[in-house]
Amino acid sequence: VVSTQSTGSSGINAEYGKQWYQRRVRGTMSMFISLFIATVFLSLRNIVGIKLSEYPPEFLILPQDSKLSLTCRVDPDSALETLPDSSESESLEPDLSLVGIQWYYQQTEDGQEWFLFESEVLEYSSVQTSYEGFYFCKAVLNDEELVRSDVTRLKIAYLNERFLKVPGQVYTVEGSTVEFECEPPASYPPANVTWHKDSKPISNARAYMGFNYTLVIVGTLPEDSGNYQCVAENSITNETRTSLEGELYVTERIDNDFNDDSERPSPSIASYYTTVLEGESTSLLCAFQGVPYPTYRWYFDNGTEISDINTTFSYQYENQVLQIDSVTRDLAGLFLCQGTNVAGSGVINITLFVDYTEELGFSEDLAEEMVFIQDEGGTTEIICKGKGTPPLDIRWYGADETLLTPEPTLPLHLDEIQNLSATCVVQNKNGTVKQTTKIRVVASEDDSNDDSDASEEAPVVATVQCYGDKMVLSLAEKRSFSSSICLTANVSFQETPSK
């Protein structure tokens, strides 16, 4: 109790007590107002408390060309107090037909919402990489949103064809440590990588997979010689890709009689690679230490000794240097330098890359229009063939610049009649070129209502691929591959076979 008749310091205390009492009153009133608002809000929420009894998952991974089916349904129990009855009887069953389920798509989680259609089930018969994104459903009544589901993120599983790094050729002597490089194709989810020797999984206790999928073999023995391949597998699509073969040659040690002062040759420089412009000259250097002084021999990657000295090759400094006066494309590959004395031998690997420039473009132009006959369950492929150096990135885009596929091959389903435009984009660091084709899938003669003979027949499209005897696929990979493949297709034009 504070006396209001006090003077001096007592008067100050009385004024403070009055202010404290007013603050308590205002605080109590604010609390009651807040409770009242919360009660009204909860009551309204119970009235419009629509819930979903079935809704899509938060994350979904599907293989390309597989079926997508998402379901979204309203919980009848949550609709009892919101929706009118299904009849004029005393039934408490709500009329769920009044509630619509709408599906929406977002390219990014915070991107613009795009309305798809109204249905309880979202279904696509064949999903592609362009279908990736975020999907969700809404329950609506008279165009008013009642509730929406959480977003479902859709990712398309895939495994590309091309390895980014492949194993090469290695020549060594027993007891050494060797490594094979591998960088698997682009994949989602990331590919599982294993190593095979002579087409069988490796069971060598001295071999293990190191950093970045590198195969490491320690203490090599002659029986380790063979062909090694890197195998990538996608756990979702169950697809596998196998790299080109890398070769390992392990030679035995030379066990000649030698005194205690003898030393087996050891490389003074590590194995290396060099890149030379076509037409220029280069010198390949090899150096070993050993007692007595080693002798030097040079070999091509197929094991053939370079003993025929001509205008192309010459030796200098007791064969330590191999001189090439004019480099040509067919010299691209692996050179081996072997140093030998009575105590043993050693090998240095030198990889030569030949750089040349090829204009960016198309090795085969796309037709202005491609016409296919409708075929239930049928598919076909359209291949875009680019040319140029350095390595190319080839992709297909739709009319609205939507990515159709990041690969040179565009799959096309012939189930439905369609008319679309597709653009192939070929690019590298030097620039970009494009070509567009119109693609039509027309009805077959059996489905046509026209009894008269067609004045024109749809053309038949056949693809013929031919590759040269040798080519450098990618300077970035530091690898040169040989190829002698020609694929031909037997096609029929108006029942007249031709090749």
Q: Topology, please?
A:
Layout lengths: L8 H39 L4 E3 L4 E5 L4 E4 L1 E2 L25 E7 L7 E5 L2 E4 L8 E9 L2 E5 L3 E8 L9 E5 L4 E3 L6 E2 L3 E6 L2 E2 L5 E3 L5 E3 L8 E8 L6 E3 L3 E6 L11 E5 L4 E6 L4 E4 L2 E4 L3 E6 L12 E4 L4 E4 L8 E9 L2 E12 L5 E4 L4 E5 L5 E5 L1 E3 L5 E5 L5 E3 L3 E5 L4 E11 L2 E12 L22 E2 L3 E5 L4 E4 L3 E2 L3 E3 L2 E3 L1
Parallel strand pairs: 2-10, 11-20, 22-29, 31-38
Antiparallel strand pairs: 1-4, 3-7, 5-6, 5-8, 8-9, 8-10, 10-13, 12-17, 14-15, 14-18, 16-17, 18-19, 18-20, 21-24, 23-27, 25-28, 26-27, 28-29, 30-33, 32-36, 34-35, 34-37, 37-38, 39-42, 40-41, 43-44
For the structure shown, list the relevant keywords.
499 residues, six-stranded mixed β-sheet, mainly beta, 44% strand, 1 helix
Shape, principal axes of CA atoms: elongated
User: What helical percentage do the residues reach?
Assistant: under 10%
Radius of gyration: 37 Å
Mean pLDDT: 76
Strand composition percent: 35-45%
Instruction: Determine the N-to-C terminus distance.
Output: 113 Å
Q: What's the main sheet like?
A: 7 strands, mixed
**Unreliably modeled segments:** 1-10, 38-48, 85-92, 450-499
In DSSP terms (H or I, runs of 4 or more residues), the helix count works out at 1
> How many strand elements?
44
Structural class label: mainly beta
